[in-house]
Amino acid sequence: MSRAGPAVVLLNLSLLVLYPIAWWAPLMRAGLLPLFSLSEISVLTGLQSLWSSDIFLALVVTLFALFAPYLKTIALTLVHFELLKPAALPVLQVLGKLAMADVFLIALYITLSRGIGLGRIEVAWGLYLFTACILASLWISWKTQQSQETTPIDEE
């Protein structure tokens, strides 16, 4: 088992379940005018819209919003169970920085939508869950890296 500790390992394993929930969860509710009902927008519904309008941007967002964080979580799990060498951690840090692009895109979307004046945006619980997953992943990476630096690696 990992030197990072059981809590870190358990939290990382929980991200394998929480990320897909966060992708389906409503990030925000948007509507054109305050009088009309609001439509819920999730990561996946946002990606569906992108696929119909801009395939390149949809590929980039899919890579950074779905694949990068999930692959990083899987790789950290492999490090925790000593199935992947800790030497991979610097690569995982780069992957984690790329995964933060999704939080930036969501923040930018909310900012732009509020600036329009005609529409209305309400933040939903999925945005908090998605952000918590990203922040937890950053903390797990940091704790894993820290545990590898403070504990000498036994070579056989």
Automatic annotation (TrEMBL):
Transmembrane regions: 7-25, 57-81, 87-111, 123-142
Taxonomic placement: Bacteria, Pseudomonadati, Pseudomonadota, Alphaproteobacteria, Rhodobacterales
Residues spanning the signal sequence: none
Protein name: Paraquat-inducible protein A
Top-level taxon of the source organism: Bacteria
Keywords on record: Membrane, Transmembrane, Transmembrane helix
Biological source species: Sulfitobacter pacificus
